[in-house]
Design goal:
The complex is a heterotrimer of chains A (324), B (665) and C (281). Chain B has 665 residues and is mainly alpha-helical. In chain B, 53% of the residues lie in helices and 4% in strands. The chains are: A alpha/beta (324), B mainly alpha (665), C alpha/beta (281).
Chain lengths: 324, 665, 281
């Protein structure tokens, strides 16, 4: 008698752009490791290009076309995923690092009787179950955590994951439907998107970031000018966001976005480990800070110990020349 | 008439002289009422101890400061003209008393040599001195117009009335001398000369008539002034003297009061009744001289804090005498909360005041209200306070621990040794800021070289609470202090050496109030002792041209000025340079009072101001004796030095360099 | 209908339960941080215990709702004796009642065990309209407890909330911070939310008088037995998310500090390095 194949479900709740391929990759590799099936659940039409792309790295795709799912309605997603899960021999559910996925991860686990964890940076498995690796204690330590109950429901740091490979044959695409057996209690009533200035921080290649040391909102305007010259994005430390100097969407760190640019330029940021957790995947970190003992310099490839007020203006001019 | 009978006719030309006595009644009544009203307003304050004890010391203090007015003389011009006016009017008052004793009590003292030398010559001279003095004061008030003075009509009128009283005095004397052909007239040279001028163009009848009118005018003016004075700043001869008598005789560093949190009705001060009677007396002692604001480092760099205006605005409320409850903090520009939080607690204001007013404790009292009752105070100070609560030091985000500086020095913990001579206390600012770790390592190395057995507390050290106390969180201060006192008791600590003047001050002057029982020595004194006894020898004096930036908490708060200098002189072959503002007149680095933890606007930095003063000397090394001063001065010097080669070095570092060959660690 | 002391009507008063976690000080310097002998958790002696900042944000949110609408704020914490400090601080911020669920097993429960234990405690507390937790804790940062707690109690849940307001008598509007803005959800009461930091929920500084009063207030203590939870339940052998290993990563490489004779030269060098990376990015 053959064992029923286990399934790894990857839930693509939100299109995370280039990070989606990382999410897919995590699910794909895990499914291979356990010799199981890779099933992807996504919102979209069965003939949409997005779904077609997903099928390149999955054995099966269940595409659900629904306005509520498209709008990111958590309870509808929960109900739908649970219904699909009950039809499969589920080993694990992998989700991305978007807000929706983070919110439904524990709830899925509890409803399905499994274990949950978040911000996984590496996945592996042994007989005891799925093992994830993540940084803890504000970035001071690294832990391997085993999820002992099945299914293991995990949201991963999509942008840090290796991208998915394209399978030799594309997976099958089936239409799924939204589970309407239980009426959602919570309703989505309003949405507000800030004007997207350029690409998302998680995808940015160059980031200019500011911290508490800037002293107020005005110096951030100079950092915006600097970012413009570099065709870069801006971000900020939590302190600057909490003080209301810049929008919250700029926040990078343990709580905040996780970024992985080629260059992260930190201006007047001290470099507390919680901030470093958000930028640890940066290729090059550089800093401008008046304090030569600021912790950030321990993570930098290069840095300048000067007052940002003296540096940023002339730096913009110099860079404008060099990058003409 | 022989000179032994020399005298003059009292009340010459004045009939109905009895009217003078009658006029005395309303004068005294009005004046006394004015004084009584002021006294009454002080009594609404809380009781306080230690202000009327030790009468002998207090009388000496009174002699020095109320009579000799030594602090006044620190500013030459004003000190001198004030002395001239003061002694002039004192002399004139004595002269009038002599007249009264002779004329009203019938004791013939205003005769003979005494009449000639004192009553005539000396009194005339002092009267002239007073007149010149008032002229000098007027020149300053109306021509030079320095910013520190308070420009009121009242102050102008006081000077004008002074001039008129003195001038009419000489006129009356002169006219009498001429009209009575006084044989001793020349013994009153000013009066004599005045009379001589008038005699040229006025007849004796005219002069007699003038004398009559002027005499009553002069009387009215003087009596009017006496009645009016208690309602103006001219009450200060009385109130300033009282205030000087009740002055704080302890070091400035110990002048903050504890709070009994179990019983106190209010934590800090937000109404006049919550001040002590001495605080309220302070307000009435103020002469509006402005020296406190002039000396204030925050004010000097352009911030709004003004100790003078705080005192005067509080005085305004005191005089208003309203019964309704209102919040003192925020009740005027000078009493705005944000200004109170610009203070570095350097006490330059207290040191500058010629009449012993204590501005700093009032600022701290109001801060206490803001911090403990309202929980409203600057953001960055909140972070420092929060950090002291959570991890017992104010340095949020430091990557250092208290034991880092001790690496490889092999120093025993207090619990590991019984025969340590002293405990070395590092303190937060020294151990948790990398730049300052050099200083404490140097101290430890010096002690090891001298063969001194010492121990440390390492991670058992908690912030002494100085920063918490100065910010205004007395509750947190007392809890931290209690923990340290308990740690000291547990390890039977009897003698503590520290390199941080803030820790030194708190241990020496503030912990005893809370049960601390141990001796505290600043390292400059301890190292000085080692040098004197030969346990430490200087082997390599440098070629450095050193200037010493006196830490406020050492010089002003505790009177320790010479030990650091003696120590520094042994480390160098060159003579030291003094900064213009040195010793008790030192200019703050800007780091005290919680200000080390505040972001300052870049154009108003106290440390930059001091750095410029240092850079104006020929020194190549500025010696410091405090972890706040070290970081503040390094910042300030680096920002302003341009190409100049000048280093900031702590006392122990310099001595350490001088006691080993340069290439040894 | 709640009438405040000056007679204003507040129809929306709420009973809010806030769960607080006490953690190892996240500001502990990297070089002091160490792992204990079990190898599975930080050494609790290497730093002080403090209240998790997101829990304080949650408490602040609750207190602001109480300031506006009246009601009660109840704080609850699971942990060893030391968590009493966290509750005292919460009481000083003017929370009304405090409960400790004492965990003296020496083991750190995982999120699922924590949620189950907290739920058991919450069921013993009077009726409530809202439960708030921090979005994650500064130590393990799993971020699971809120969602698990909601499911355990069968209640609606919204994560990353930075603003809450009453919506009629029966519902709440919760604003969720998203990557690029916000979304608002309407949920029926009672609901659970995890709170994230924003510029309006910085925890208030308690007044000294309130700190002194708080030290005198009674705190209800429950043992695990009182809640019918066995100590094994909190142990790692029963964990659904079990720590296998915990290690401290090697510290990073050296930084090149840019030098120069003057600041213009240094800026020039910096610009050169940045431009080089930018061109190849």
């Amino acid at each position: 008698m053959s064992e029923q194949t286990s399934t790894v479900i990857t839930v693509v709740a939100v299109d995370q752009g280039s990070a989606t391929t990382g999410l897919l990759g995590a699910g794909q590799r895990l499914a291979r490791d356990i010799n199981g099936e890779h099933l992807v659940i996504a919102c979209g039409g069965t003939d949409s290009p997005f779904v077609a792309m997903l099928s390149g790295s999955a054995d099966r795709v269940i595409a659900v076309e629904s306005a509520e799912l498209a709008n990111g309605h958590p309870e509808v997603w929960l109900n739908t995923i649970c219904a699909i899960s009950s039809e499969n021999n589920l080993a694990s559910i992998i989700l991305g690092s978007d807000i929706l996925s983070q919110e439904i991860t524990p709830r899925l686990a509890q409803r399905l009787g499994g274990s949950s964890i978040g911000d996984a940076q590496e996945l592996s498995a042994n007989d005891g179950g799925l093992i994830i690796t993540r940084s803890v204690y504000g970035g001071k330590a690294v832990a391997d955590i085993q999820l002992t109950a099945s299914p293991a429901v995990v949201w991963v740091r999509s942008q840090s994951m290796e991208p998915a490979e394209t399978n030799a044959t594309a997976g099958t695409i089936v239409a799924g439907k939204v589970d309407k057996t239980t009426a959602p209690r919570t309703q989505l009533v309003d949405t507000h998107e800030e004007e997207a200035e350029g690409e998302r921080l998680e995808d940015a290649q160059i980031i200019v970031s500011g911290g508490r040391g800037l002293g107020g909102p005005e110096p951030f305007e100079d950092l915006v000018a600097l970012a413009n010259v570099l065709k870069a994005q801006n971000s900020a430390s939590r302190a600057a966001c909490d003080l209301g100097w810049v929008p919250h969407s700029w926040q990078v760190g343990q709580t905040g976005k996780k970024v992985a640019p080629q260059l992260y330029l930190a201006v007047a940021i001290s470099g507390a480990s919680q901030h470093m957790m958000g930028i640890a995947d940066s290729k090059v970190i550089a800093a401008i800070n008046t304090d030569s003992e600021a912790p950030i310099f321990k993570y930098c490839q290069f840095g300048l110990v000067e007052d940002h007020k003296q540096v940023v203006g002339p730096l913009i001019e110099k860079l404008a020349e060099l990058l003409k | 008439m022989s000179s032994s009978e020399a005298t003059r006719e009292v009340l010459w030309n004045i009939s109905h002289g009895w009217v003078m006595y009658v006029l005395l009644v309303p004068t005294v009544a009005i004046g006394a009422y004015g004084i009584w009203r002021r006294y009454k307003s002080w009594t609404q304050g809380l009781p306080t101890e230690g202000r009327l004890d030790r009468p002998k010391e207090r009388l000496i203090h009174l002699w020095n400061h109320a009579l000799l007015q030594r602090r006044n003389l620190r500013q030459r011009y004003a000190g001198i003209f004030h002395a001239m006016i003061f002694w002039g009017f004192v002399t004139l008052t004595i002269a009038t008393t002599v007249v009264m004793i002779d004329h009203d009590f019938g004791i013939p003292i205003m005769r003979g040599a005494f009449y000639l030398y004192f009553q005539s010559l000396f009194v005339d001279a002092l009267g002239l001195l007073a007149l010149i003095g008032v002229g000098m004061a007027g020149y300053r008030r109306w021509k030079t117009r320095p910013a520190k003075l308070v420009y009121t009509d009242e102050a102008s009128w006081i000077l004008i009335i002074g001039v008129i009283i003195l001038a009419t005095g000489f006129l009356l004397e002169g006219w009498r001398i001429v009209a009575t052909a006084d044989p001793w007239g020349a013994w009153s040279p000013i009066g004599y000369a005045t009379g001589a001028v008038f005699a040229k163009f006025a007849s004796i009848e005219t002069l007699t008539q003038l004398h009559l009118w002027c005499w009553w005018f002069h009387l009215a003016l003087v009596f009017g002034f006496l009645a009016w004075a208690p309602y103006t700043k001219m009450l200060h001869p009385l109130t300033s003297a009282l205030n000087i008598y009740a002055a704080n005789l302890e070091p400035i560093g110990g002048s903050l009061k504890s709070i009994d949190f179990e019983t106190a009705k209010n934590f800090g001060v937000n109404s006049l009744k919550q001040f002590s009677w001495k605080d309220l007396l302070d307000l009435d002692a103020c002469t509006e001289c402005g020296r406190c604001t002039d000396a204030c480092p925050a004010n000097t760099v352009g911030k709004q804090l003004s100790p003078r205006d705080i005192i005067l605005d509080l005085r305004g409320w005191l005089h208003k005498g309203t019964n309704e409850e209102f919040s003192l903090i925020g009740s005027s520009d000078a009493l705005q909360s944000d200004r109170l939080f610009e203070c570095t607690s350097c006490a330059a204001c207290v040191e500058a005041c010629p009449v012993s007013i204590e501005q700093l404790p009032k600022i701290v009292d109001m801060r206490r209200h803001q911090v403990m009752e309202e929980a409203e105070f600057p953001d960055t100070m909140q972070k420092a306070v929060n950090s002291m609560e959570e991890r017992q030091h104010p340095y949020t985000g430091t990557q250092f621990s208290r034991t880092d500086w001790m690496k490889e020095l092999d120093i025993p913990h207090a619990s590991e040794t019984e025969d340590a001579e002293v405990l070395v206390w590092a303190g937060c600012g020294t151990s948790l800021v990398e730049r300052n770790q050099k200083s404490i390592r140097s101290l430890a190395q010096l002690l090891q070289k001298a063969g001194v057995k010492f121990s440390v507390l390492g991670r058992d050290e908690k912030c002494t609470g100085d920063v918490a106390r100065r910010i205004g969180n007395e509750f947190l201060f007392e809890s931290l202090a209690q923990e340290n006192i308990d740690t000291f008791k547990k390890h039977k600590v009897k003698k503590v050496v520290t390199a941080c003047p803030h820790c030194f001050n708190t241990f020496r002057n503030e912990y005893p109030q809370l049960g601390g029982d141990f001796e505290t020595i600043h390292h400059s004194e301890f190292l000085g002792g080692l040098l004197k006894s030969g346990r430490l020898k200087v082997t390599e004096a440098s070629e450095r041209k050193i200037t010493f930036h006196d830490p406020c908490y050492l010089s002003r708060h505790n009177g320790v000025t010479e030990e650091p200098r003696e120590l520094l002189e042994t480390t160098t072959q060159k003579t030291m340079t003094e900064l213009p503002r040195n010793r008790q007149n030192s200019f703050c680095c800007g780091g005290g009072g919680g200000m080390s933890f505040v972001d300052e606007p870049s154009d108003k930095r106290v440390n930059h101001e001091r750095a410029k003063e240092i850079l104006a000397t020929d020194a190549d090394t500025v010696a410091v004796g405090c972890p706040f001063c070290t970081t503040m001065m390094e910042d300030g010097i680096n920002a302003n030095k341009g190409d100049r080669k000048i280093e900031v070095k702590e006392l122990a570092e310099l001595l350490n360099e001088a006691t080993t060959a340069p290439d040894q660690p | 209908m709640y009438l405040d002391p000056i007679g204003n009507q507040h129809p929306y008063k709420m009973n809010i339960i806030v769960c607080l976690k006490q953690i190892l000080d996240p500001e502990v310097p990297v070089r002091d941080f160490s792992i204990d002998s079990s190898g599975l958790q930080a050494d609790s002696a290497c730093a002080n215990q403090v209240t998790n900042i997101f829990c304080e944000n949650a408490l602040e949110t609750a207190l602001q709702l109480k300031d506006l609408h009246g009601g009660k704020v109840i704080i609850l914490s699971l942990g060893p004796e030391s968590v009493e400090d966290t509750l005292r601080k919460g009481l000083a911020m003017k929370a009304d009642d405090a409960f400790i669920i004492l965990n003296d097993t020496g083991q750190i429960p995982d999120s699922a065990a924590t949620a189950k234990t907290l739920a058991a405690g919450i069921r013993k507390i009077e009726p409530f309209d809202l439960i708030l937790v921090g979005r994650e804790s500064g130590d393990w940062g799993a971020g699971q407890t809120g969602g698990l707690l909601a499911e355990e109690l069968g209640l609606p849940f919204t994560a990353f909330v930075d603003e809450i307001s009453p919506e009629g008598d029966d519902r709440l509007t919760l604003r969720q911070q998203t990557d690029s803005g916000w979304q608002k959800f309407s949920a029926p009461k009672p609901a659970v939310a995890s709170i994230t930091n924003s510029d309006h929920n910085l925890p208030r500084i308690p007044k000294t008088r309130d700190i002194i009063m708080a030290n005198r207030k009674p705190v209800t203590r429950w043992t695990l037995e009182d809640l019918e939870i066995t100590p094994e339940h909190l142990s790692s052998s029963q964990s659904k998310a079990r720590v296998l290993t915990l290690s401290i990563p090697d510290s990073k490489s050296d930084c090149e500090f840019i030098e120069g004779d003057n600041i213009e030269e240094k800026i020039g060098k910096l610009a050169g390095k940045i431009a080089a990376i930018t061109r190849s990015a």
